Amino acid sequence: MFQTTTANLKSRINVSVAPAIVCDPLDEDVESDATYLVSERSLVRLALVASEVGARFQRDGVEHDPMAWMLAPRRMFDGRPAITACLDLEDCTRAILLHGLSLGLDAAPEDLDALAADDTSDDNVVGPWTIADEGGDLSRRRLYTATYVERTASGTKHGFSAVMAQSEHAASRQLAARIAFDDVHSLNLIEGFDAALPLVNALVSPGMAQMLEQVAADPGSPLADGLVVIIEQRLAA
Fold it and tell me: Which domain of life is it from (predicted)?
C-alpha cells in the first residue's frame, strides 16, 4: 500500500525540471546527496517563500508548477534555484517581492533590490509585504483610479484599479507594480472616480462604485485607509 501511494505521489511531482536539482524527494537518501548546514531561521525563510509561491500561482491562475519554479535556476538569484537561494535573507526578500506583487516569474536582482531598499520614496513600494501609502502628510492623499486592457497570447485582460496616493506619478507606479503591468503609460489613470467610463461600468459593482465615490469626495474618511481595489476580467483567446 505504501509503495502504491508513493508511486502516485511521484507521478504528481515534476522532479526533472531543473538541471541544478536532480534528486527525487520521494526516494531514500543516499551518500552522494548534497548536504546543507542551515539555521532554523533559514528553514522558515524557505517555507515562507514556498507558501507564497503556491498561494500566488493559485491566486493569479499562473499556469506553472510551483515546484518547478522552486527548482529552476533564476536570474533573480544569480543563477541559483530558489530551493537553496531563499535560505538567505536577501534572496528570500527578492522572492517575496516578486510573488507578493505578481511581478512575473523572474526579474533582474537589482530591480528587486531597489524595490526593497526604497522604503522612504514618495513614488515607490515601501517594502516587501505590501504596496502602502507614501507617508508624509496624509491630507495630500487623493483617490486615483485606472482602467487598462492587456492582450497576451492566452487572451485579453480587462482591469480596474483604485489606490490612495499623493500624486499621479506615485499612483501609477503603485498600480503598475500591484497589477504587474509593465506599460505604465498605457494605464488610463485619473484622479477621482468616474462611474460612467465603459470599462468601469462593466467591472465595478454599484456598491463598490458608491464607496469609491464617497472616498473621492472625502479622501480623509476611514474608508480610504489602506484602500487598494483590483478587479480583473480575463477573456480566453
Answer: Bacteria
User: What are the pLDDT digits (tens) for 7-25?
Assistant: 333 333 333 333 445 677 8
Distance between CA atoms of residues 120 and 133, nearest Å: 11
The pairs formed by 86-92 with CB atoms below 8 angstroms and a separation of 24 or more are: 86/45, 86/46, 86/49, 87/36, 87/38, 87/42, 87/43, 87/45, 87/46, 88/42, 88/45, 89/45, 92/45, 92/46, 92/48, 92/49
- Predicted local confidence at residue 185, as pLDDT: 54
Instruction: Give pTM, 2 decimals.
Output: 0.46
Number of domains in the chain: 2
* Nearest of 80, 120, 75 to residue 98 by alpha carbon: 75
The answer to whether position 128 is within a domain reads: no
Containing structural domain, residue 187: 138-236
What is the pLDDT averaged over residues 104-110? 88
Same domain, 199 and 102: no
Q: Are residues 108 and 71 in the same domain?
A: yes
Q: Are residues 8 and 38 in the same domain?
A: yes
